[in-house]
Amino acid sequence: MSAGSQTTSVRPDIVVRVSKMKLDAMMDDFIKNSVLGRVLEGNKLITPQDIDEVISAEIPDEEVGPARYKAVFQFMMHGPCGAANPKCPCMSKGKCTKYYPKAFRDKTTVDDDGYALYGRRDTKRTVECNNILLNNSHVVPHHRGLLVKYQAHINVQWCNCSLSIKYMFKYIGKGQDTATFVLEKVGQQQTTTDQPSTSAQRDDFDEVTSYLSCRWDETESSSR
After folding, report:
1. In terms of residue numbers, what domain contains 224?
2. How far is CA 115 from the centre of its chain?
3. Which residues of 95-109 are buried (b: 16+ CB within 10 A; e: fewer)?
4. What's the rounded Cα separation, in Å, for the pair 86 and 70?
5. With left for phi above 0 and alpha for psi between -120 and 50, is residue 42 left, alpha or beta?
6. Whole-angstrom distance, CA of residue 219 vs CA of residue 208
7. Are residues 54 and 93 in the same domain?
8. Residues 94, 129 within the same domain
């Protein structure tokens, strides 16, 4: 396989390095360059106008900002889902679990629970995804500058209540990624029927628990 034909799935070493570089650069944008505003206690986006200066949930004009238009099209469109694609991963019991498509709104407002309802004007701008036309009701909220710079899905949300803060930090408690795999010794074959099977387990080894936890057990290794 040539270097040009490799995908990200076969080069996790490069993916991790690039991700760390992007993370460091983004933290500098937040802290040093104040991309989302000054990082100080009490410095908040208070009014809907303040929110609109940082967060967008609309498809930009392709003629005015072709780079922004392309980035939103590639990274920030949700769907198609719903009746157009009932097998979409976000679908459950016939409904989108992310509540798309969103309702059109002429301007940004804040509801009684403290959540921002971003402005999504019916501008008639559309992008085509899987032969389906998507409009502003399918745009994931984002910061256009960060989106164009990092060329990745970056969902930006306005957080101003305890429930929103819980959403931000819930991923910390999800645990580490796991994988199931098997280690086998090569070149050792059973020579007689009197020898025990190489796959035999100790009496006190719980194979079911080991499989469900997706962790390699050192005692299992020593028993082989």
Report:
1. 176-188+200-224
2. 20
3. ebeeebbbeebeebe
4. 26
5. left
6. 15
7. yes
8. yes
**CB of 82 closer than 8 Å to CB of 183:** no
pLDDT of residue 114: 78
Q: Please write the tens of the pLDDT for every residue from 178-199.
A: 666 667 666 655 544 444 444 4
Residues 116 and 183 reside in one and the same domain = no
Residues 69 and 161 in one domain: yes
Q: Within this chain, do residues 116 and 163 fall inside the same structural domain, yes or no?
A: yes
CB half-sphere exposure, 84, CA atoms < 13 A? 14
Residue 78 lies in a domain: yes
Q: What is the mean pLDDT of the chain?
A: 81
Give how many domains the chain has, as a whole number.
2
**Rounded distance between C-alpha atoms, residue 187 and residue 174, angstroms:** 40
Whether residue 60 is found in the same domain as residue 143: yes
- Both 214 and 112 in one domain: the answer is no
Residue with tokens 């990082």: 39
Q: Say how many residues make up the chain.
A: 224
pLDDT at position 135: 96
Task: Give pTM, 2 decimals.
Answer: 0.68
- Contact, 185 vs 224, CB < 8 A? yes
Percent of the chain scoring above 90 in pLDDT: 49
Could you give the 3-state DSSP secondary structure of residue 16? helix
At 53, list the tokens: 């200066």
Q: Where are the alpha helices (DSSP H) in the chain?
A: 12-31, 48-54, 66-75, 144-150, 162-169, 207-213, 218-223
**For the segment 70-80, what is each residue's pLDDT rounded down to a tens digit?**
999 999 999 89
